[in-house]
Amino acid sequence: MKIVLANPRGFCAGVNMAILTVEEALKIVGTPLYVYHEIVHNRHVVDRFVHEGVTFVDTIDEVPAGATVIFSAHGVSPAVRQAAKDRGCTMIDATCPLVTKVHMEAVRYARQGFNILLVGHAGHDEVEGTVGEAPGAITIVESPEDVDKLPFTQDDKLVYLTQTTLSMDDANRIINAIKARYPQVKQPPSEDICYATTNRQHAVRALAESVDLVLVVGSKNSSNSVRLTEISETTGTRAHLLDDKRELQSEWFDGVNLVLVTAGASAPEYLVQEIIQELIDTHGGEAEESHVVEENMHFNLPVSLRVLAKSNA
């Protein structure tokens, strides 16, 4: 059996920055250390930090007064920041800069009197954070059908923004429906779907048609990982989303000669390599890289972390 490794795959710059932020914070302040929501949507990453003494919380009320709290890569609302400030917490912001960009757009358009159509998944951490920036101005749109139910007219000031981890195809279907009903809708000055999401989707779309099976390494609550699975299936190729090698099932490989392996933007590379080795050990064959898009993006660690390091030096 031949195994093709999609490149790019795995950690994006935002995820890498967020994980490094927690690692550095552990060195600087030790434990207890609190993280608001999962730092990234990957079970193995979260479990590792829990083992190292990190406490993940769903509300700021769970963080003791005066403790250090890190905000996850998906971003938080101003209300969460204020709640942490009211408790006297030391705050470290590991929000991905590309998510911060969407937050700033939401604030700017709300101040200009726009009704904001946020294309994304209700309940997702990133969407909740963005809505919190301008709750009275934002309407979440999850599907083209939702567009038909919107109460706005062609005289209203409208702009659309998108969750950064959406499928480009899904987002475009919704955006096209918005434009068809509201020709006056304003679009953001640059694409909101992040480069890493776009690149990983492009790689799967380019490679999936030529293989018998696609394996996507990632957790079930990782939006971008789920999208990779869905994109593969739109090409007509079966796909499975799995956290690690323990979830491999022998029946998946009946009649399979060529497998594509990729990983969502929050999945560690060592999990990919373990799956590759398991496939080689079980089915024989070899693995080779297929480079579709080159990435060289890097995000600096949060300023708040660097300030904390100096104060504790």
TrEMBL record:
(2E)-4-hydroxy-3-methylbut-2-enyl diphosphate binds at H41, H74, H124, T164, S222, S223, N224, S266. Binds 1 [4Fe-4S] cluster per subunit. GO terms for molecular function: 4-hydroxy-3-methylbut-2-enyl diphosphate reductase activity. The active site is at E126 (proton donor). Its EC number is 1.17.7.4. Isopentenyl diphosphate binds at H41, H74, H124, S222, S223, N224, S266. It catalyses: dimethylallyl diphosphate + 2 oxidized [2Fe-2S]-[ferredoxin] + H2O = (2E)-4-hydroxy-3-methylbut-2-enyl diphosphate + 2 reduced [2Fe-2S]-[ferredoxin] + 2 H(+); isopentenyl diphosphate + 2 oxidized [2Fe-2S]-[ferredoxin] + H2O = (2E)-4-hydroxy-3-methylbut-2-enyl diphosphate + 2 reduced [2Fe-2S]-[ferredoxin] + 2 H(+). It is an enzyme of class 1 (oxidoreductase). Dimethylallyl diphosphate binds at H41, H74, H124, S222, S223, N224, S266. Pathway: Isoprenoid biosynthesis; isopentenyl diphosphate biosynthesis via DXP pathway; isopentenyl diphosphate from 1-deoxy-D-xylulose 5-phosphate: step 6/6; Isoprenoid biosynthesis; dimethylallyl diphosphate biosynthesis; dimethylallyl diphosphate from (2E)-4-hydroxy-3-methylbutenyl diphosphate: step 1/1. Keywords: 4Fe-4S, Iron, Iron-sulfur, Isoprene biosynthesis, Metal-binding, Oxidoreductase. [4Fe-4S] cluster binds at C12, C96, C194. Its cofactor is [4Fe-4S] cluster. InterPro entries: LytB/IspH. Transmembrane segments: none annotated. HAMAP family: IspH (MF_00191). Belongs to the IspH family. Catalyzes the conversion of 1-hydroxy-2-methyl-2-(E)-butenyl 4-diphosphate (HMBPP) into a mixture of isopentenyl diphosphate (IPP) and dimethylallyl diphosphate (DMAPP). Acts in the terminal step of the DOXP/MEP pathway for isoprenoid precursor biosynthesis. This is 4-hydroxy-3-methylbut-2-enyl diphosphate reductase. It comes from Natronomicrosphaera hydrolytica. The gene is ispH.
